[in-house]
Amino acid sequence: MDTAGNTASPMYGVGAEFASAADLLRVAKEIRAAGYESFDVFSPFPIHGMDKAVQFRRSPLGRIVFIGGLTGFLTAMALQYIPSAVIYPLILHGKPFGFFAIPAYFPILFETTVLFSAFTAFIGLLMIIGLPRFNHPLFNWERFKGVSADGFFAVIESRDPKFAPAEAAEFLASLGGSNVTIIHED
Amino acid sequence: MSLRPDQKFDYRHVGYGFLAACALAVLAFLGLLIGAFLDVRQFAFSYLFAFVFFFTISLGALFWVVVHHAVDAEWSVGMRRQLENIACLFSALAVLFIPLVFVAPVLWAWMDSANAGNAVLQEKAAYLNRPFFWGRTLVYFAVFIGSAYLLRAYSVAQDASGSARCTVYNRRVAFASIVPVVLCVTFAAVDWLMSLDWHWFSTMWGVYLFAGAALSSLCVLVLVVTALRSVGYFQGVITEEHYHILGKLLLAFTIFWAYIGFSQYMLIWYANIPEETSYFILRNTGSWNVLSILLVVGHFIVPFLLLLPSFGKRRPGFLCGVAWWILAMHLLDVYLMVLPELHRGGFRPSLMDLLSVVAIGAALVAAYLKALGDSAIYPVRDPRLQQSIDLQN
């Protein structure tokens, strides 16, 4: 059993190398069927049907962005309504004012909704995927550098409740994985 | 090449529906005839309202077919034939337009010789005069019918021959008809709806009508496809993936409609010029205002929130419910375009509003059912059919 990274620091997961994209598709289904939740597969190019095979749960980002957009909408509503209806009513053109001047608020309402949504999407995505970071534990594994050329890898992560190093390594080997390696963090 | 039973519509599924639709149309038209003698103004406006509603549905279907061919779409091949069938209802609509010719001066007040001395009208007389108006109307129907029938004819010819050449011809027809169709939509909206009040003008009007048309025709497509699926057609041709795309488009065009409608409203609201604001002042007072607010909430906010999560877009039943709702709201939208010009005091529903919708609707349903069995239910030998079936999104 190979190890990669600093063996004194916590374990990130167990990885193995596979021969082809078709192999990796099969392996992803097997790992999912075995009940692992936190695992990932890596290949030099997108593999058709992989999304279905790994069945990652839906990203929560959509809901977060909705809340962000709603926040932007309500912010703009408050920042326009309170000054122009409560603090200093703008009565001009003989038009209705206060709440009934809502058509005038709409461009800003729309803009802030979009702005807050965009910021929420961008920052929320970075937070969910854990970027920015200086180094990923997987890069401690020398063989993993082949992932951008001809390597197909599957990694079961240690944060999975079912994870046991020896068992996971054996399981990956039984699926036909070569160079099974225990990967530690830096 | 003969069609398999699952590719050819069987009238067994309709039963007496076709005859019932014909009978309903005849009865409703009789009722309208009586109504026209009792109150010709109410009849004229009600009939125009119902006509425009169904006209927009056909128009939207034609738009989708043209766009489909123009951008070489793959996903919609399976449902394209139904869109072509809806677009071909223009020939029936041209016949249904005839009653409006008889009541034209009642409906379009600028035709009335009593208004001939009006200064605004004299300025606009170069455009708003009878020969030019009827000539334009003929051109609109010629363009719509020509485009719809050519696109469908090549598509049906392809069912028999399987030749990819038909796809190429259709692409040419589509590109040739984009500009005429768009111009005709804009001018038709100006002629039939905007000229009800010849003082008023809005440069967004044609786009506004088109936005409602694209949306409502999608709703009709969802309903038609679901109805056909429920009696066993489209097995393995139209899946929940297609519903997902239709749901996304419904959401997109709901937003588009609101965007266009609000753009028009806000520019007029801001500029505050009397000859522009008259339209909205009329619709924002008294009981019309209640309906206008209902339109904003029901035509935009409700469908927007319903279609925003992916929860409902893959469920045919849910999507059909939303489609019915949007169609009802589009009916209200057209109602608010036409009827306030007649009842300036406020909302006054009339039996003839309902009768007009039933009459024209039943006549078009009959025409549609007639067209449904004339050809295969989907383009069976389209070169892109397999990509449409394999759709993933």
Automatic annotation (TrEMBL), chain A:
Ranges annotated as spanning the membrane: 61-82, 102-129
Keyword tRNA processing among record annotations: no
UniProt KW keywords: Membrane, Transmembrane, Transmembrane helix
InterPro entries: ActD
UniProt keyword Secreted, yes or no: no
PANTHER family (alphabetical): LIPOPROTEIN-RELATED (PTHR40394), QUINOL:CYTOCHROME C OXIDOREDUCTASE MEMBRANE PROTEIN (PTHR40394:SF2)
Protein name: Quinol:cytochrome c oxidoreductase membrane protein
Source organism per UniProt: Terrimicrobium sacchariphilum
From TrEMBL, chain B:
Presence of the UniProt keyword Transmembrane in the record: yes
Keyword Transmembrane helix part of the UniProt annotation: yes
Transmembrane segments: 14-38, 44-67, 88-111, 131-151, 172-193, 205-228, 249-270, 290-311, 318-338, 350-369
Keywords: Membrane, Transmembrane, Transmembrane helix
Domain of life: Bacteria
Name the UniProt record assigns to this protein: Quinol:cytochrome c oxidoreductase quinone-binding subunit 2
Species assigned in the record: Terrimicrobium sacchariphilum
